Each structure stands twice: as C-alpha cells, then as structure tokens.
C-alpha cells in the first residue's frame, strides 16, 4: 500500500493516508519506526500490526477516557471517536470491548440525564435532548416513566418567579411573551394555561 500523504498535526502526530482509502493517526516515533513517509510503501503485515498493536488499543483507551468524564450514548461515543480520526471498523472493535464490561448503557445515561434536569426542564424538552443524543424513543419513554417525578406546573411556577412575572398585572403582550417562552421550553399548552390562569 502506498502512502499518499503524511499530514503533520499538533503534538508530534501525523495523519497518514494510504492509497487503499485507509487513514490513521500516529505519533512521529511510531510512523518513523515503520519507515512511513510520503510515496513509501507500507506492507499489509505492517498495516495490520499498526492497527492491532497501536490504533485499536488507543481507540479503546480514548473511549474509556470519554466515558470516565460522563455517561454517553453509543451514538455520541461513536461520533467522538470518529472526530478523533478512528475508522468505523476500529470504532466497532472499541465499542464491542466496552460493551463486554457494561460501560456503555443508554438507559443508565438517559436516567442520569432525567434525574439531573427534571427540576429545570419539561418532560418534552428532556425527551428532545435525549433524542438528539441518539437514545432510542422506547428507552426514553421507559426511563421518563420510571424517573421523571416533577410536576410541570411547579416548574412553570418556578420559572415565572425567576422571570419576575406578575400574573395579576401582566399586559396582553407580556402574557404572550411568557407563553411563548414556556412553550419553547417544551411545556404543554394545558400546563401553561393552568398556571397562567
């Protein structure tokens, strides 16, 4: 396989692109030890050894590091690893490795998110947040049913206090503005109307 390009990155790393379409990132000492430079040939054995001995272990370590900081959905973890320059095949291996140990759990991550935000966000807003994180709708609905204990009306009351909204003396324009604000936060029109009246 021919090395089409060797693009130097920060921290002594370089992105190596092969004519086979494969590309990966190595540190200077690593690519020099394999004689990798633009125009050089990289044997299939050397490429497989690089993937097995360097790329896959590094991807697993990066995945664990990302999960150490916060719970993530599988989709989010895949995106983060892809941003790091790892191929889909390598990411699959890392995800399988992490799943063996139960470190990746969409339901656990969703439950944690619900518990953290339920005192400040509507059920609908939390649902939208979790969908954006790549959690499946059936997991979201199950977790919301189990974990979401806040009353929307109480949350709305808290937001009205925070916004210094005076229900009794609000003008028509102020009522419209606060209604739109609450609706943008995902509160249902029934809950908003009950509190505002």
Strand order, sheet with most strands: 1-2-3
- Percent helix, as a range, is 55-70%
Distance between the termini: 72 Å
* Oligomeric organization of the protein chains: single chain
Large-scale geometry: elongated
Structurally, how many domains make up the residues?
4
Provide the residue-averaged pLDDT. Answer: 89
CATH-defined topology of the largest domain: Arc Repressor Mutant, subunit A
CATH architecture of the largest domain: Orthogonal Bundle
Radius of gyration from CA coordinates: 25 Å
Which blocks of ≥5 consecutive residues have pLDDT under 50?
Answer: none
Helix and strand pattern: EEEHHHHHHHHHH
**Strand share of the residues?**
5-15%
CATH class of the largest domain: Mainly Alpha
Q: How many extended strands?
A: 3
Secondary structure category: mainly alpha
Describe the 3D structure.
The chain has 197 residues and is mainly α. It has four domains: 1-42, no CATH class; 44-104, Arc Repressor Mutant, subunit A; 106-147; 152-196. It is built from ten helices and three strands. Strands 1-2-3 form a three-stranded antiparallel sheet. Strand 1 (3-8) and strand 2 form a beta hairpin. The longest helix has 26 residues, at 44-69. It is elongated. The model has no long low-confidence stretch (mean pLDDT 89).
Top keywords for this entry?
single chain, 197 residues, mainly alpha, Arc Repressor Mutant, subunit A, three-stranded antiparallel beta sheet, 10 helices, 9% strand, elongated
Secondary structure layout:
Layout: E1 3-8, E2 13-18, E3 23-27, H1 28-33, H2 44-69, H3 74-83, H4 88-100, H5 106-117, H6 123-132, H7 137-147, H8 152-162, H9 172-184, H10 189-196
Antiparallel strand pairs: 1-2, 2-3
Helix pairs in contact: 2-4, 3-4, 5-7, 6-7, 8-10, 9-10
């Amino acid at each position: 396989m021919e090395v089409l390009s060797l693009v130097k990155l920060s921290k002594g790393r370089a992105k190596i692109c092969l004519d086979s379409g494969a590309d990966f990132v190595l540190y200077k000492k690593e690519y020099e030890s394999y004689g990798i430079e633009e125009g050089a040939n990289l044997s299939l054995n050397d490429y497989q050894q690089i993937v097995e001995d360097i790329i896959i272990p590094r991807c697993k370590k990066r995945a664990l590091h990302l999960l150490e900081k916060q719970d993530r959905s599988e989709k989010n973890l895949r995106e983060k690893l892809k941003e790091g320059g790892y191929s889909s095949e390598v990411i699959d291996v890392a995800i399988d490795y992490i799943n063996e140990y139960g470190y990746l759990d969409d339901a656990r991550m969703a439950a944690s998110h619900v518990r953290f935000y339920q005192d400040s966000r509507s059920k609908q807003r939390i649902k939208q947040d979790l969908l954006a994180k790549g959690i499946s709708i059936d997991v979201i609905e199950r977790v919301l049913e189990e974990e979401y204990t806040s009353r929307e009306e109480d949350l709305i009351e808290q937001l009205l206090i925070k916004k210094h909204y005076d229900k009794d003396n609000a003008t028509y324009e102020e009522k419209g503005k606060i209604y739109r604000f609450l609706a943008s936060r995902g509160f249902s029109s029934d809950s908003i109307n009950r509190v505002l009246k």
